[in-house]
Design goal:
With about 180 residues, the chain is mainly alpha-helical. Helices cover about 75% and strands about 0% of the residues. The radius of gyration is 19 Å and the shape is globular.
């Protein structure tokens, strides 16, 4: 039998986790305060429901971050960003920080990353959102730094391809023309 969660224990966990959880979500939604608050609230509601049945996990913040990531992926899969111009994709994906600076770019990046395989999205998140170095990512995954660099490159290329699918019809035709011209040469 699982014991009920004491209110003071829940209050303490909330105070210890709310800032890092909110920062995690806020970075991924481009600072959209209202959306970040809604998603953090959803994560905490799931936590209280789950923890009252299964007990509190050993690492509550890690649990909340994973649930928040899943909530973010679900959110961005449901939305459809407006049709994009190629310049938006270039600015978004080519920016060395990649982190969305506005809610609009967050919607674009979030939608694109929600379309990627988890391994690609995870490495992009670790590098761009969590600001981990290539060395830190390599150490965490027990792979070489060169392997991390290659995976980052491939993940960026896949993200770029996903985002190009959201090009406006005019931009899409122009982009297709470029691709065909390159193939002909």
């Amino acid at each position: 039998m699982i014991r009920p969660l004491p209110e003071d224990e829940v209050d303490l966990m909330y105070r210890e986790t709310i800032r890092p959880l909110y920062a995690y979500v806020s970075r991924r939604v481009g600072g959209d305060r209202s959306l970040a608050e809604d998603l953090v609230q959803e994560a905490w509601i799931r936590a209280l429901d789950n923890w009252s049945v299964k007990g509190v996990p050993n690492e509550p913040l890690a649990w909340l971050l994973r649930v928040s990531r899943n909530i973010l992926v679900s959110h961005f899969r449901r939305i459809r960003p407006e049709q994009l111009e190629p310049a938006v994709i270039a600015l978004t994906v080519e920016d060395p920080r990649l982190a969305p600076s506005t809610p609009e770019t967050a919607a674009v990046i979030g939608w694109g990353m929600a379309q990627l395989r988890r391994t690609h999205a995870d490495i992009l998140e670790a590098f761009y959102f969590d600001e981990k170095s290539v060395r830190a990512i390599a150490d965490e995954r027990s792979i070489s730094e060169r392997a991390v660099e290659g995976r980052l490159h491939r993940a960026r290329e896949k993200l770029k391809r996903k985002l190009k699918r959201r090009l406006s019809p005019t931009a899409f035709r122009a982009e297709q023309g470029k691709t065909q011209n390159v193939r002909q040469t």
